[in-house]
Amino acid sequence: MRTLISDPTGRADADQRRQDKLTAFVKAEAAAQGFDLCRITHAESIPQAPARLETFLGDGHHGTMGWMEETRDRRSDPKVLWPEVRSVVMFGLNYGPEEDPRGLQEKPSHGAISVYARNRDYHDIIKGRLKEIATRFAARAGEDVKVFVDTAPVMEKPLGEAAGLGWQGKHTNLVSRTHGSWIFLGSMFTTADLVLDEPEVDHCGSCRACLEACPTNAFPAPYRLDARRCISYLTIEHKGPIDPEFRPLIGNRIYGCDDCLAACPWNKFAASASEMKLKARDDLKEPSLAFLLSLDDATFRTFFSGSPVKRIGRNRFIRNVLLAAGNSADTALIEPCLMLARDPSATVRGMVIWALKRLMSPEEFVRFSASRAEEDDPEVLDEWQLAGVA
Fold first, then answer.
1. Angstrom distance (rounded) from CA 344 to CA 333
2. What torsion do the CA atoms of 229, 233, 237, 241 make, to the nearest 10 degrees?
3. Cα dihedral 168→172→177→178 (10° resolution)
4. What is the DSSP pairing of strand 112-113 with strand 253-255?
5. pLDDT tens across 112-153, in order?
6. 142 vs 133: CA distance, rounded Å
7. In whole angstroms, how far apart are CA 2 and each of 80, 286, 389?
8. Which active-site residues does the annotation give?
9. Beta carbons of 155 and 138 less than 8 angstroms apart
10. How buried is residue 321: exposed, middle or buried, by Cβ count under 10 Å (0-12/13-18/19+)?
11. pTM summary value
């Protein structure tokens, strides 16, 4: 907490009272908007962030996410992003599921969509709430404010730790003692001086549950993530075909992966979330692969309207669903896969080959390969070669 030295005029005491009132105001507004957590830190509270970011980028662990490298300076220091900022208000919203999402691995004919993406896009929801808070705070404080939710170059997890929302666990995500690993983060930067909260300390101890839960060994060491091996990166950020090494390991995860989050023992406290937390759409909890394979671009956009899934586009999504179909051992999915064999998208056509190679008998696959259409796309030709067809 900042300490102010009193002066004969009482100005310091007045400044302290103002800080107290504004701090109480913003926290009350956060609660009114349904946020489960609200803590405050200062703009220079993450001096370790630049070096950690440089290591991450230097190791190439960001994969094809070039925007992380392009924004490294602004990302690593709030003062570079906005020189006038003095206080950073961090907000946390619990989105914990009602059941362990890993149970869907026992239903291979259904797709597993990451818990955070089973409703409206959280960026829109949280930013709308933050704008409400920021508008009222600015009017009350007479100070400038900016709000951010994930898409801006803000290192929200280190700031969340510095503010006391939680700590960055060994899976690199924020963990809360009261809400486990299921937390959406948002921030409000302001030129106002506010009362600071104490940072949180690491409570992971010797636990390795999150590291051991990762299907693709995406953690080269505790507290370090190689995104290039992460299922969330592969199914969301990565364009084109997915490395054959990872395909069987992805299982039926068609958008993101929750395994490291779901394994966290601190999730047992997440039941205390507010009643305003986001609820999953019933039709996104365990959609059938057969239905998802039938989606053309128009029906894809309609079905995922308002969902973050829509952002990756139909072709990349169907690529993921075909991969899951190939892992399902469900021969009833052969026909839906065949319907996509002449899809306009080379990414889709290529993954059809991999899926059918795994679903069909050798004789059936030979007949399928003999009936294939003329193909000149290198991506698709590579898949035929991978399948052993010249």
1. 20
2. 40
3. 120
4. parallel
5. 999 999 988 888 889 999 999 999 999 999 999 999 998 778
6. 14
7. 22, 49, 69
8. 150
9. no
10. buried
11. 0.92
Sheet holding 183-190, edge to edge: 37-42, 87-94, 183-190, 145-148
- Residue bearing tokens 């995104």: 227
Q: Coil, helix or strand for 56? A: helix
Question: Cα separation of 113 and 303, whole Å?
Answer: 14
Q: Provide the greatest CA pair distance for the chain.
A: 93
Question: Which residue in this structure is represented by tokens 């030295």?
Answer: 5
Q: How many CB atoms sit inside 10 A of residue 240's CB?
A: 11
Q: Report the Cα–Cα distance between both ends of the chain, in Å, rounded.
A: 69
What is the C-alpha to C-alpha distance for residues 390 and 382, in angstroms, rounded to an integer?
Answer: 10
List beta partners, residue 316.
none
Domain boundaries, the chain: 1-280, 288-390
Which residues, given as ranges, of the chain have pLDDT below 70? 1-10, 67, 271-278
Q: Which residues pair with 221 in a beta bridge?
A: 224
d(CA 56, CA 221) in angstroms, rounded, equals 12
Query: Rounded to an integer, what distance in angstroms lies between the CA atom of residue 117 and that of residue 382?
Result: 32
Closest CA to 237 of 227, 246, 251: 227
Nearest to 95 by CA among 128, 119, 127: 119
Number of C-beta neighbours around residue 31 at 10 A: 13
Q: Give the burial class of 39: count Cβ atoms within 10 A of its Cβ; 0-12 exposed, 13-18 middle, 19 or more buried.
A: buried
Q: How far is CA 325 from CA 89, 249, 331, 362, in A?
A: 44, 13, 9, 17
How high is the pLDDT of residue 4?
A: 46
Contact indicator for 289, 110 with CB cutoff of 8 Å: yes
Q: Read off the tokens for 222.
A: 């505790």
